[in-house]
Each structure stands twice: as C-alpha cells, then as structure tokens.
Write a structure and sequence with these properties.
D-Maltodextrin-Binding Protein, domain 2; SBP; 4-stranded mixed β-sheet; signal; alpha+beta; 3-stranded antiparallel β-sheet; transport; Carbohydrate ABC transporter substrate-binding protein, CUT1 family
C-alpha cells in the first residue's frame, strides 16, 4: 500500500489526490496535453482488465519544464508513490539513476521492432531506462480553405509564411474577422520555446543547434541571430502579443477556434482540430515546417515521450508489465488512430487503418525519422540549465527587451560557464 505524500507549491498540487490512490497496486503519471490523459486512462483500464490489478492515473503539468521539476523532487526524495513515469525524450540521461533497467524485467527482445534510435536514446550506460511510447516532430498546420481563397501556395520558407500570413490576416480582418492572426506557436519561456527556436535556427544553413555533438557552443552566429530577429518581428504583426505565453494548448485553442492561418504544433493536434467539436474540421492540412530560405531545410525538432519505472517502486515487475502493455503494437495503433500520436514502431506507418486516420503519417514519414535532436546527450545533467538559458534568452528577444545579437552574445557566455561544469 502506498504511503501518500503531501507536496507544497502549485506545481506539486498536480499530484493532489494521490493519497486517495493508497489502495491501488500501481500509480502512473500521464500528461494531459490534448487527449493524452484520456488515452492513457483507456490503456490503463485495458491492462487492469487483463491483469486484475488496479492503477491510479495521475495527471501532471502540461509544461515539460514544470513536469521535470516535479519528477526530480519526487525521485530525489526516493518516493515510491509513483511507479511509472511518462518521461520526455531528453530526460533519460538525467533521470537514469532513479530508474530501473527494464532489460532485467522484460522478456528478451522486448525492444525488437521499435525505432532503433529511440531505443538507443533510452539506453544509458547499457541499461534500458525507458520504453519508447510515442515520438514527435514539429509540423505546420494550415487552413487549406484560406490559402485557396487567397490563391496562395503552402509556404516552404519562413519568409513565404510571413508574406502569406500578412496577406490572409489583412484580408480576413477587412472582412470583419478582427481577431484573426497569421501564425501561432509556443512562445512561453519553457521547453516548448527551446523547441520552436531550435527549429527556426536549424532551418538555416549554419544556423547551429545551440551545442553541437562535440560539445562546441554554436548558438552565437549570424544565421541564428537572423532567425530570432525574424521571429521577433512576428510579435504584434502576424502573431498576437499573447503568443509569448502560449504553450501547445493555447496555440491550438486559437487555431482550432478559426482565429489563425498557420500553427506550429505536434501531431497530436490533428485529431482535435478534425474532431466534431472543431470549428475548422476538414479545412486543415499538415506540412513540414518551412525552411530558412532557398538554401535552408525544414527542421522539425525531435520530441516524444517514453515510459519508465521508478527504482523506488514496490512492484517493479508489475510496473514493467504495464509499460510493456502500453507500448505494445495494439496500444500504439489504438493511440495513433484515436489521438494521432506517432507510433515508435515503424510497421505502424504502413498500417492502412492508421494511415486512413492520420494521412500525414505517410507523407511526412521522413520528417519524423530525420527530426533534429536537442543537445541533451552531449550536455547530460546540465541540459536543463542549457535549455533554460536558451529559452529565457529567446523570450527576451521575442519580447523586444534585447536584440538577437545582444541576447546570443550574452547566452554564449552563460553557456560557457555551464560548460565548465563538465557536460
């Protein structure tokens, strides 16, 4: 039986109600972005029916930054109150010491058929600390009806996106749609802004990826400055001032209500914008993110989430069995069809039922398999500091408090200080 914990602070209040879970055999933390929580609960119920065990599902903050802080406090206290953690693709290295080696609790060959790169990402010092659950890459959502109305092509560069956004935004506002905007994205100072800004930078030749694979700090360069300056120019032009506080769901809310032409988001939003409750149903398509000019490239950043078992769980074998079930072929297929969550099994990208539900899983397959990773592996335990420094700097640039050149020069110095701590 679980002891129950009382946590202080607004973030930790996300675990309010865990004390009611004392009779459950296991507790799992799940995200609540889009349909995540409902899909997790449905999967857990299927496992409960099969196994005869009970599971308490705990919702966690939508912000990845807040969720990591919460996890670190729970695991740092060696609490066994949560058995299974949903962890970001950039967290295995920093949380590995608190997680069991799933190789010791799952049958041999448990990772066969999964994307090898994600399995490698989740293997730390030879130990499999998490199973791949769903993968992600940033994509561009657009209103196909409005591009057709204004005789515009789907933009393949950021400059073309900006121009199309100006045209449609002006036309729609003139037609009486005063709250209409050209482009919405994730601009709050959190991990989501690290992702967005890295996509802007990496889309330009020599734009850099904050820190390269050799540990060299690459963020302070003219292409990166140009990318951030362009993005800063969107604020109060084609993007609302409020975008500076948007996470995924705020951006989706604006887009899904019909108040934006373009949106950067993850694939999960597809099922929601195409739902019966959506005011733009059947008027949306998905494309790769724009490139940074004719010599640039589309650069969706790698996302995704995995399932890990706490080293402090009282029931590690049972928890590992739950993880194996939730990451299985059938469960991933269900989640892909019902919620457009990208599978971590290549075979499902050729499944007719999956492709019928989410057509762009086929057309954008290369986007998902060649996504740009964040520099978590090379920076190790210091990645949260690197990311925090980066997204805070970008937020300052977008807010107009500093220029891109000033911000990146200062950021380079801060990253050098972090680097001296050995990443």
């Amino acid at each position: 039986m679980k002891s129950g914990l009382v946590y202080a602070g607004s973030v930790l209040m996300a675990l309010g109600g865990i004390s009611q879970a004392q009779a459950a055999d296991l507790t799992i933390s799940c995200g609540a972005v889009g349909a995540e929580l409902q899909l997790c609960q449905a999967g857990v119920e299927r496992w409960e029916a099969r196994s005869g065990h009970s599971v308490e599902v705990v919702s966690t903050p939508n912000s990845a930054t807040e969720r990591l802080s919460l996890y670190q406090q729970i695991l740092g206290s060696h609490s066994g109150d949560i058995d299974v953690f949903q962890i970001d693709v950039v967290w295995p290295g920093m949380l590995a010491t608190h997680l069991i080696d799933l190789n010791e609790h799952l049958p041999k060959g448990a990772t066969d058929g999964f994307f090898e790169a994600i399995v490698d990402n989740n293997t730390v010092d030879g130990q499999l600390v998490a199973m791949p659950w769903f993968t992600d890459a940033g994509v561009l959502y657009y209103r196909k009806d409005l591009l057709e109305k204004y005789n515009l092509e789907v933009p393949t560069t950021w400059a073309a996106l900006t121009e199309a956004a100006h045209t449609v935004q002006a036309g729609e506002r003139e037609a009486g749609h005063k709250d209409f905007w050209g482009y919405v994205f994730q601009g709050r100072a959190y991990e989501g802004l690290t992702v967005n800004a890295l996509e802007w930078m990496a889309s330009y030749p020599e734009g850099g990826t904050i820190v390269d694979d050799d540990g060299k700090i690459t963020v302070n360069n003219p292409q990166a400055a140009g990318a951030l300056s362009q993005a800063a120019g969107w604020i109060n032009d084609i993007s609302p001032q409020g975008v500076l506080n948007y996470t995924e769901e705020e951006a989706r809310g604006v887009f899904q209500s019909g108040n934006a032409l373009f949106m950067r988001n993850w694939p999960y939003a597809w099922d929601l914008v195409q739902s019966e409750q959506s005011s733009i149903r059947d008027r949306v398509e998905v494309a790769p993110l724009p490139a940074g000019g004719k010599d640039g490239q589309s650069a969706g950043v790698l996302g995704g989430w995995n399932l890990a078992v706490s080293r402090y769980s009282d029931n590690p074998d049972m928890a590992a069995d739950l993880v194996a079930f939730l990451t299985s072929f059938d469960e991933q297929k269900r989640r892909a069809i019902e919620g457009s969550y990208n599978p971590t099994l290549p075979a499902l990208y050729q499944d007719e039922e999956v492709l019928a539900a989410v057509p762009f899983f086929g057309t954008l397959y290369e986007t998902f398999t060649s996504a740009v990773p964040r520099p978590a592996a090379v920076t190790g335990d210091n990645y949260p500091r690197v990311s925090n420094a980066f997204f805070n700097t970008v937020h300052e640039v977008l807010s107009g408090r500093v220029t891109a050149d000033q911000g990146l020069e200062s950021l380079e110095g801060e990253l050098e200080r972090i680097k001296r701590r050995r990443w």
